[in-house]
């Protein structure tokens, strides 16, 4: 950190000092209640944490000034003219007063913002067109002095608003962002404080006696600043971020040792009206104080209240009088506005609400203009103005009321019908929406996002007794409640939308009609979804089905203007099916999941395969054999076992009747229908030797016979394909090569036997009567109640919640809803889709429609029953001998003859209504236009096919499964569709940062995508992701555009607490442009550094060379070496001339004694090396950590670099960490790993030297990695979880209570890149 060398120019130095004050110091701890007193004997250098600042009235210039603009315009650009990347802001010479500020993305367009010095306003350019910029009003007086430039930066960081280009009016407005579903508690901090201040950089300051602690809620870190007083009573922040405080003695403290004596009474309030003047309120008295002259200019006594406006005027309320004070330089002029004022409420930065005679309320601006609001008293609870026409206030205990003066009618918003609660507080957010907190019975947070609509969201959990709500710069909200602070974040509700050609379709759910509707170009359409052909998914809601269809690559939405409908049709022709994955496994049951995975029941475990990432996960249940699985509409997995137990989780279950659970089907979120086989005698033959690995778990059976299921379970000659649920694919004894009959039973009540040694394939429809019975039960998962529905029946579930039962003996078909018999003389029943069934009555097949008595004839040939499926539009497909036929009410529409002697598996209907079935070793696909293709690859002899949610297909065969992917014609169209879909998702929910990476891979020019991602990450305060996007955007550019990318990131960082990252980018800009203004980010109070084991001192030299721009950096460094070897070839004299202190004979294990009482923010040790014959070296690193911890406080860091080769399976990196046990050392001394990065690239001139010899052991510095540890008060957990990047501790059993056993442990990190951050610490 360094001031400009030309320090003779006093105004530049003073300007820099003001800027420096906006940054919190880097003392960090995750526990605000812990004492921040350093260890005994440890001193903090004066000025290190609280740097002095001055106010001299000099206005600060924008970072991107005319000087930089001139430089940017003269730099040569190496790219070709055909590039489509974003151009930098164009600065014309004839407009020298137009200063560039910041750029932002609005969809695929870049908005470049400028400040017009002549007109004193913001302007913007989009595609060379100029726009005026309209900012929302300032609703918090603490920020009333913010310049338009600062307000713009804050808005671009705010997740609640987004810029909108109004082409018709040539304006850039800030509009409400994506809809908010609810508010959730992000963090809670228990703490006590005297006063608080929400800062413009996204932090919060609290005063405790004479100390101000500043909380960065995003990094969980605290900074400390102390003042020479015994009680702080007020705080304020300048437009540049400088903190000043007032105390109980009437003293205004500008810094630790700079103060102004204002009055003898306690200071109650401080408000900035510009950079150098503040208004101070105390004991019915108001003072105007000049920070430049360090004296108060004028005093007004007898004042009730004062209000500050953005034009610099002060409004004073005395008794019934209201006057305005105009400030010019250090002089003031007072003018009376009204002498009959009853009450005054701050509206926004340019207006007040006042009540005058006869309780008439009006909006009064600084010019004296009045806008009448009728007789609405401003004394109402939580009275707040929304705009010039509307106000909001609490009405009784029922909710909030919004009054519109133009409509003269209030709109009420209430979260419930109860009145046993009260409103505690409310606030208006940046987008003009209202958020308020309630207490008692309906405690929580309530949000009225759209003022013109009665809709609102309520978020009750954990937000009790909030007394004040404040919005932070990035759109988070903090709630103050007693001795605690609650940080709330919005949960974005992403509207469901899709592209249809060049039109955007928005989908909505009509709660009144209980159906889906859609809008395209303001026209409303009904939405027609294809039927559900899989009973496993029959309970999915319409919204759930819609989301699945929009993911499916086989279909797309189509607008039918004639019928005003949105339907789903085939996307593109399929030319082939290719094999994607082919895992081999034996399983008892399986389930295709809605999220694109597939689960297999194997013994007592469920193995789930993610077909997209080719990974497996395991879930174990307390049973010996899982026999059935089902998934709720919300994606929750439950399983049934062979003992009649329904397992809701690994430790939660419901016991049913004894007997194997064969099938489970959800009919809604909380109820399932279960079919069991209840055996009088055991009919299962365990004579064969198929092994199932069930994780070596031994459970007792219900008959008290102890069975070890380590090598068990063979099912003799039974093949039962259940198409209504996905159970029993155990055709163990079916031999396809020996012409055994492949007999598959499609009736769920029957078990079919395989007949060997027959030369052709046929289907045996005879009943195999066994001495058992089946039972159907309805189970409530919430209440865990069970209701018997029937015995020896089959059930079918429909999407309306009805359960249809078929009794094969009585041939009756009835519904459980009203126990009414629907049909008689029904021989067989098969599921058609979610609202229809196929029935066989004598020799006639019908499809029962959703309406009572509705029958659609399907044919008279009972062979039609084979592979009978419903396609679309009342059409059916079936196998007839050697043909596959499609008919419409008996009329044959399509006949495909596949020849004699082919084995045909089960037919499956895909989402687009096309037909796919296995024939021999190939797949046959009859597409919706009746074009037929056959796969070119062999896919085994597949018996059954099922479709995934995204349009992939899984095939089941003996001994495994195969995942099949359609080869779609015109893949470019698919990519275009995917780009459109991702763009829409990000438009409505920018928080899905992973989608930016996905989108960048498929777009032709990813630069704009990375810039959009960077801006979204900054809104979310995700500095890690923002830096990743920034680095990737840089790699897409060169020359002038690379500088533009750095400027974008730098300008966003200026409004955040990320001081370190801002300096990194500033240094990059200085190197690229040579502009010294970026060096203003630095001053001479550098972090104190202690470097251990320097050897040849090449690291210290490389460090100074790398940061040669930082004048005086060497004075903050102490470089040490164990050996007393002052080699003349070492750069010792050169380093000493730069201020580095060189010490020899320094032992790393004893630095706490050698440097007792000193503090080092950074301690480095590069490549610790065992000397020849040195024993017990494994204790050196742990002892070093313990010694170093005595010289540091929480937030300080230790850097250790080690040789870490990992290429080609090299495990020597584990050995190096074992010889230098950094895991044990860091954990024992309360240090957490926060970063791992490459070392050689950062310090290319570093040369390793052995301790005992003047030669290197490590010749290749590219294998060196630097581990960065940060000291914490206590380790909440050895390993942080849930980060984008994380690390694992391996080589030892992790035991939080026994950390001594980590001698051989090592860090296994996810990456070696410089961005490998394992926490958000900056």
Would you write up a description of this structure?
It is globular and about 105 Å long. Strand 59 and strand 60 form a beta hairpin. The strands form 20 sheets. Strands 79-78-77-80-81-83-82 form a seven-stranded mixed beta sheet. It has a six-stranded mixed beta sheet with strand order 1-2-3-4-6-5. The protein is mainly beta and 1322 residues long. The chain is 13% helix and 36% strand.
Helix and strand layout, with pairings?
Layout: H1 10-20, H2 66-74, E1 98-106, E2 109-116, E3 121-126, E4 129-133, H3 148-157, E5 161-166, E6 171-176, E7 180-190, E8 195-198, E9 204-208, E10 211-216, E11 221-226, E12 232-237, E13 243-247, E14 251-253, E15 259-261, E16 269-272, E17 277-282, E18 285-290, E19 295-301, E20 305-308, E21 314-318, E22 321-328, E23 331-338, E24 343-348, E25 351-355, E26 361-365, E27 370-372, E28 384-385, E29 390-395, E30 399-404, E31 409-413, E32 421-428, E33 434-440, E34 444-448, E35 457-459, E36 468-471, E37 477-481, E38 484-492, E39 496-500, E40 503-510, E41 515-520, E42 523-527, H4 542-551, E43 555-560, E44 565-570, E45 574-581, E46 589-592, E47 597-602, E48 605-610, E49 615-620, E50 626-631, E51 637-641, E52 645-649, E53 652-655, E54 660-666, E55 671-679, E56 772-780, E57 786-791, E58 793-797, E59 803-807, E60 812-815, E61 820-823, E62 828-833, E63 836-841, E64 844-848, E65 855-859, E66 869-870, E67 875-880, E68 883-888, E69 891-897, E70 908-909, E71 915-919, E72 922-926, E73 932-934, E74 944-947, E75 953-957, E76 960-968, ...
Parallel strand pairs: 4-6, 42-44, 77-78, 77-80, 78-79, 80-81
Antiparallel strand pairs: 1-2, 2-3, 3-4, 5-6, 7-38, 8-9, 9-10, 10-11, 12-13, 13-14, 14-15, 16-17, 17-18, 18-19, 20-21, 21-22, 22-23, 24-25, 25-26, 26-27, 28-29, 29-30, 30-31, 32-33, 33-34, 34-35, 36-37, 37-38, 39-40, 40-41, 41-42, 43-44, 45-76, 46-47, 47-48, 48-49, 50-51, 51-52, 52-53, 54-55, ...
Helix pairs in contact: 5-6, 6-7, 7-8, 7-9, 8-9, 9-10, 14-16
């Amino acid at each position: 950190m360094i001031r400009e060398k030309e320090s003779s120019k006093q105004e530049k130095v003073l300007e820099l000092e003001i800027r420096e004050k906006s940054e919190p110091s880097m003392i960090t701890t995750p526990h605000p209640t812990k004492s921040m007193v350093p260890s005994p004997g440890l001193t903090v250098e004066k000025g290190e944490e609280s740097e002095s600042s001055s106010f001299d009235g000099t206005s600060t210039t924008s970072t991107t000034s005319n000087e930089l603009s001139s430089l940017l315009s003269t730099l040569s650009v190496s790219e070709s003219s055909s590039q489509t990347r974003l151009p930098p802001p164009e600065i014309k010479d004839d407009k020298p007063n137009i200063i560039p500020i910041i750029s932002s993305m609005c969809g695929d367009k870049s908005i470049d913002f400028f400040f017009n010095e002549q007109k004193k306003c913001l302007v913007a350019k989009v595609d060379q067109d100029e726009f005026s910029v309209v900012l929302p009003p300032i609703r918090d007086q603490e920020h009333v002095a913010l310049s338009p430039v600062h307000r713009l930066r804050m808005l671009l960081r705010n997740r609640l608003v987004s810029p909108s280009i109004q082409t018709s009016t040539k304006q850039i407005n800030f509009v409400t962002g994506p809809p908010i579903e609810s508010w959730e508690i992000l963090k809670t901090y228990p703490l006590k404080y005297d006063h608080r201040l929400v800062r413009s950089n996204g932090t919060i300051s609290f005063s405790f006696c004479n100390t101000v602690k500043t909380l960065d809620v995003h990094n969980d870190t605290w900074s400390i600043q102390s003042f020479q007083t015994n009680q702080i009573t007020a705080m304020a922040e300048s437009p540049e971020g400088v903190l000043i405080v007032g105390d109980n003695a009437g003293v205004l403290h500008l810094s630790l040792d700079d103060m102004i004596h204002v009055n003898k009474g306690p200071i109650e309030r401080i408000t900035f009206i510009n950079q150098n003047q503040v208004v101070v309120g105390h004991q019915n008295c108001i003072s105007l104080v000049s920070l430049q002259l360090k004296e108060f200019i004028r005093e007004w006594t007898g004042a009730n209240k004062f209000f500050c406006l953005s034009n610099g005027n002060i409004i004073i309320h005395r008794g019934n009088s209201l006057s305005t004070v105009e400030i010019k330089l250090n002089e003031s002029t007072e003018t009376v506005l009204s002498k009959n004022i009853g009450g005054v409420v701050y509206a926004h930065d340019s207006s007040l609400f006042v009540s005058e005679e006869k309780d008439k309320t009006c909006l009064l601006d600084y010019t004296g203009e009045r806008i009448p609001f009728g007789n609405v008293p401003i004394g109402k609870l939580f009275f707040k103005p929304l705009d010039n026409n509307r106000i909001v206030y609490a009405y009784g205990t029922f909710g909030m009321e919004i009054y519109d003066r133009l409509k003269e009618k209030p709109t009420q918003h209430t979260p419930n019908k109860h009145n046993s609660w009260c409103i505690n507080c409310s606030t208006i957010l940046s987008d003009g929406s209202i958020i308020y907190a309630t207490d008692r019975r309906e405690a929580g947070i309530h949000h009225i996002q759209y003022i013109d609509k009665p809709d609102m969201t309520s978020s009750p959990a954990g937000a009790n007794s909030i007394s004040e709500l404040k919005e932070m710069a990035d759109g988070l909200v903090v709630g103050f409640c007693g001795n605690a602070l609650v940080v709330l974040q919005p949960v974005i509700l992403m509207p469901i939308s899709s592209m249809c050609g060049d039109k955007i379709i928005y989908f909505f759910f009509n709660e009144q009609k209980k159906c889906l509707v859609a809008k395209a170009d303001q026209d409303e359409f009904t939405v027609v979804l294809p039927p559900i052909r899989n009973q496993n998914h029959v309970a999915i809601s319409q919204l759930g089905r819609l989301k699945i269809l929009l993911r499916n690559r086989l279909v797309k939405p189509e607008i039918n203007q004639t019928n005003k409908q949105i339907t789903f049709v085939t996307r593109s022709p399929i030319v082939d099916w290719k094999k994607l994955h082919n895992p081999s496994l034996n399983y008892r049951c399986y389930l295709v999941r809605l999220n694109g995975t597939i689960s297999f029941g194997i013994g007592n475990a469920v193995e789930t395969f993610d077909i997209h990432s080719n990974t497996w996960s395991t879930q174990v249940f307390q049973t010996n054999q899982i026999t059935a699985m089902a998934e709720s509409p919300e994606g929750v997995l439950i399983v049934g076992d062979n003992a009649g137990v329904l397992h809701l989780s690994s430790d939660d279950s419901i016991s049913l009747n004894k007997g194997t659970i064969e099938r489970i089907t959800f009919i809604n979120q909380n109820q399932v229908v279960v079919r069991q086989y209840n055996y009088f005698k055991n009919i299962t033959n365990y004579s064969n030797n198929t092994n199932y690995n069930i994780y070596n778990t031994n459970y007792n059976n219900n008959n008290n016979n102890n069975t070890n299921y380590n090598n068990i379970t063979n099912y003799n000659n039974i093949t039962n394909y259940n198409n209504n649920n996905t159970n029993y694919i155990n055709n163990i004894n079916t031999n396809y090569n020996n012409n055994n009959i492949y007999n598959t039973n499609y009736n769920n009540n029957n078990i079919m036997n395989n007949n060997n040694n027959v030369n052709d394939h046929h289907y045996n429809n005879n009943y195999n009567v066994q001495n058992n019975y089946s039972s159907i039960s309805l189970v409530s998962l919430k209440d865990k109640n069970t209701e018997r529905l029937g015995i020896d029946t089959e059930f079918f579930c429909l999407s309306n919640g009805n359960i249809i039962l078929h009794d094969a003996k009585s041939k009756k078909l009835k519904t459980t809803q009203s126990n009414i018999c629907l049909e008689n003389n029904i021989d067989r029943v098969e599921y058609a889709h979610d609202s229809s069934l196929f029935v066989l009555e004598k020799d006639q097949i019908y499809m029962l429609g959703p309406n009572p008595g509705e029958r659609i004839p399907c044919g008279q040939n009972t062979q039609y029953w084979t592979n009978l499926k419903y396609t679309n539009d009342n059409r059916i497909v079936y196998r007839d001998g050697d043909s596959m036929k499609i008919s419409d009410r008996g009329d044959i529409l399509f006949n495909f003859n596949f020849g004699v002697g082919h084995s045909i598996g089960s037919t499956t209907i895909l989402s687009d209504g096309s037909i796919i079935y296995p024939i021999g070793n190939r797949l046959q696909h009859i597409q919706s236009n009746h074009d037929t293709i056959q796969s070119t690859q062999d896919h085994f002899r597949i018996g059954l096919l099922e479709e995934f949610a995204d349009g992939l297909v899984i095939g089941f065969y003996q001994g495994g499964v195969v995942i099949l992917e359609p080869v779609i014609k015109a893949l470019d169209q698919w990519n275009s569709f995917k780009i459109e879909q991702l763009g829409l998702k990000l438009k409505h929910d920018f928080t899905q940062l992973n989608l930016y990476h996905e989108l960048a891979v498929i777009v032709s020019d990813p630069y704009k995508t990375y810039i959009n991602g960077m801006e979204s990450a900054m809104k979310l305060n995700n500095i890690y992701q923002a830096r990743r996007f920034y680095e990737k955007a840089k790699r897409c550019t060169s020359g002038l555009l690379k500088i533009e990318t750095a400027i974008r990131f730098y300008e966003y960082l200026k409004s955040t607490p990320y001081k370190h990252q801002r300096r990194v980018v500033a240094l990059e800009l200085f190197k690229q442009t040579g502009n010294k203004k970026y060096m203003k980010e630095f001053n001479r109070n550098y972090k104190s550094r202690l470097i251990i084991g320097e050897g040849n001192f090449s690291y210290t030299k490389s460090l100074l060379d790398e940061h040669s721009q930082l004048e005086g950096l060497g004075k903050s460094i102490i470089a040490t070496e164990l050996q007393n070897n002052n080699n003349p070839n070492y750069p010792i004299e050169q380093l000493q001339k730069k201020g580095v202190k060189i010490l020899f004979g320094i032992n790393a294990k004893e630095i706490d004694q050698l440097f007792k009482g000193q503090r080092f923010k950074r301690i480095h040790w590069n490549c610790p090396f065992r000397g020849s014959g040195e024993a017990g070296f494994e204790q050196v690193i742990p002892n070093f950590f313990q010694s170093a911890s005595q010289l540091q406080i929480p937030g300080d860091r230790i850097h250790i670099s080690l040789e870490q080769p990992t290429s080609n399976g090299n495990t020597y990196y584990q050995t190096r960490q074992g010889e230098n046990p950094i895991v044990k050392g860091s954990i024992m001394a309360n240090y957490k790993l926060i970063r791992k990065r490459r070392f050689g690239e950062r310090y290319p001139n570093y040369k390793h030297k052995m301790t005992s010899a003047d030669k290197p052991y490590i010749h290749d510095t590219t294998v060196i990695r630097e581990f960065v540890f940060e000291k914490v008060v206590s380790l909440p957990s050895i390993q942080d979880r849930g980060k984008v990047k994380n690390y694992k501790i391996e080589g030892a059993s992790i035991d939080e209570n026994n950390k001594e056993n980590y001698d051989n442990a090592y860090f296994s990190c996810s990456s070696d890149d410089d961005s490998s951050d394992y926490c958000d610490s900056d």
